[in-house]
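Let's do one together. I've listed all components of the complex below, 680 residues spread over two lines.
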Amino acid sequence: MPKDGYVVAVAGATGAVGEVMLQVLEQRKFPVRKLLALASERSVGKRLPFSGEEVRVEMLTRDAFKGVDIALFSAGAGRSLEFAPAAWQAGAVVVDNSSAFRMDREVPLVVPEINPHAIALYTQRGIIANPNCTTIVTLMALAPLHRFSRIKRVVASSYQAVSGAGAKALEELKQQVRAWARDQPLMVEVFPYQIAFNVLPHIDVFQENGYTKEEMKLVHESRKILEDPAILVSPTTVRVPVFTAHSVSVHVETEQKIPAAKARELFSAFPGLQLLDDPAAKQYPMPLYAAGKDDCYVGRIREDLAVPNGLNFWVCGDQLRKGAALNAVQIAEVLAERYL
Amino acid sequence: MPKDGYVVAVAGATGAVGEVMLQVLEQRKFPVRKLLALASERSVGKRLPFSGEEVRVEMLTRDAFKGVDIALFSAGAGRSLEFAPAAWQAGAVVVDNSSAFRMDREVPLVVPEINPHAIALYTQRGIIANPNCTTIVTLMALAPLHRFSRIKRVVASSYQAVSGAGAKALEELKQQVRAWARDQPLMVEVFPYQIAFNVLPHIDVFQENGYTKEEMKLVHESRKILEDPAILVSPTTVRVPVFTAHSVSVHVETEQKIPAAKARELFSAFPGLQLLDDPAAKQYPMPLYAAGKDDCYVGRIREDLAVPNGLNFWVCGDQLRKGAALNAVQIAEVLAERYL
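Okay, and this is what the predicted structure of the assembly comes out as:
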């Protein structure tokens, strides 16, 4: 560790994830010597609270990374493609929350509880990719099962919170609900249709094969992170009118049978995952209670009625924290501890 | 048909489904000579609109069914068990929306588009059971596939509207949202936890096997209605903060491969099912737009990435209409046309 800690830049500091990145850096006492809050032109000059002080938002440019040790990016794939290589060239290691580099063979894609060893590859491009939020939440529960017995197939249907689509999307749900309560017309701008009191089976853009990009992320990223290209994934990703925290209904088939009791044991032992599975006492994970928490929550664990080696469960996680900002800071922690 | 039509009783006329039963009888011009609106004591004396007139709610008793030809029940399983046999004894054929008789071997369980022939069995007990709402919506899309190639396995995750839990549940979501908009505390009475801005992986009571009753209904009722006890179902049923219309993410495996194009053809040709599947034009089913409609809507049709004979799709239907009241009236229509 450099004397007095690291110079950390947050690119996209005023976004829904960027804001949480600042909070998480502070809460986890990441050794920050200096924090640079970077954003696009219209946010320059804003002041963001950090560690009892205020940080002025500066312009995100190629020259902004001089002297930066670690750059956390959450400013969209376009900006990551444009600025991450410059950051690395200036000497910063980039932890990128966008989808820009995730499937790049020379870029590690990391959930620190699952494949921290992959971080070592950062030297190739100077970038470590943070996985998609739904992928992280789902894999936090799949990883301990996969270690016990290889996963063959996953069927996953998601229930994703609006803040996963950004701060404006969160505001849109709030505005729609307030308008509904006042009998006023509801405005639709961010989402393709009204999200209040509705459910949209559409997240990110549709591909030729009928799946959305969001769905294909779960397919490809799961294989890369679990380091098993044979894993088969059938995804359906859906937006629900929840503010924060994604939920996923997961049906998994493994090579050997994993009895429900064994699964509970594996889940309990996995760091960052909390078992919440006592249906008789109405204990099961819900997004409202996972929001703001660092850990993911797993419950509704039961053996599949249809296939011999099948297991069904329900997992929730705050997609802004473990699904994005926290995971990125955890990667930075491993970087700091082992490599920088 | 008796001269001038039938004497029709609606038991549970003041409930969420009962109310829609009256609307549907009127809208479909069911030949009603006389309508009896029956309910429990506290609703007696209320007046309900029907065909431009008002019907006074009478007490639901064993003696209430004299002269009734068809009795539509939606007053809960307990009341069906108590009063349906008396209705039959008095000469009325019962169409029962509760779960009380659904799995009874002597009681047909019917979706008129799927197995209308089963209605003939009504003579055994005098009762025809209306299936569970989620089962109906899901099977409206599965049935045409099953006719083309036998279904082996279904993985279904539901997104169920609050009005499926009754009129009070609907009111609870509205109250919670209004309270939120006014910065007031949210009251929780009907659902086990706050439903506004939340998702509950819990519908009906939990069984020994870790599944809820709601989930097991999908397993058992699907087999009975599709008349194939070998069909395997993996269900997860979830409540979402939507007023009306259930949605289901369905992953199905069939004996022969059904290409997506063939599935669209089969869905299009099935009565009561509307194809809404043009992702490029943002056309896909959503509960907000299925609410108040008679048909179910299917879209997001795509071949499974994980299994050779797998197909994934998304189906929405108004659970008060096709999932309950409409289906019951449709059964009554077949009864009237063919048997009474």
